[in-house]
Prior knowledge:
Elements: H1 5-8, H2 13-16, H3 34-55, H4 69-82, E1 87-98, E2 101-104, E3 114-119, E4 122-125, E5 154-157, E6 172-180, H5 185-190, H6 200-218, H7 230-236, H8 244-251
Parallel strand pairs: 5-6
Antiparallel strand pairs: 1-2, 1-3, 1-6, 3-4
Amino acid sequence: MQATARMASVVSSTLLARRRLIRVVLPTPASINMTTEKFINSLKRIVAPELNHLLTEAPLRPGDFGWYCREHAVITAAIAKSFGHVLKIVYGEVSIVIGTICLTTRTAIPEDKHWWCLGLGLPIVDLSARLDFFRPECKKHLPVINDGPCGPLGVLITDDPSAHMISYDRPYLVYTPLRTETSSVEEFLTSRSTDFLKGAEAAQITRRIFIHIHRLLSGSSRSYIGRMNQYQALVDLQTIDDSPKAVFAHLRGPVP
């Protein structure tokens, strides 16, 4: 959500036009087993920071969240599938309510709303949230995976549209799911240009980041954090084979 001239040479304007925000609070369900717990921990410690480094940009204007939420959601769901878990992609509204100030997707055109994931026994798995753009004290917050409050922020999941407009006693993130996407992760990743990931470059970059993070979790790739800035990393990712064959190979599980 923060297009710059240098980014434009690597990321298409369609990709730069997309981003939104969220954050959630809920206890970790007791039903989660160790395998799922380890995966969730990897999402927090490895996947979310890497995705934010490669995709997230500071907001350009009021109402801009800066998050590339669609790409975050597709890659998160793909990583889950490749390691034996299931996450569905959810489309809906999100608002940040801070006193009388409300940043919301409710007034946006349909394609400019918010996307996150659902699964692992949790109603929200959203790695795109970067609340420090709006609340500096949230600089090192964990991603939204329903395992506790996000610093001073509360979280509400509701079907009530009026909940987005209420003035709360502390900053709140308010989510309203509108639908669960029915297309498969394979469809999102392997189509050259889909209605969901508009533009060939947007889809291509999403596939390459998915393969990179898959390899990162498998131990065959290094994080770009601390090595390259966002622009340098996106240029470096151009060397990755993002053909359907390569994508399907990584979706099936760890690749040697």
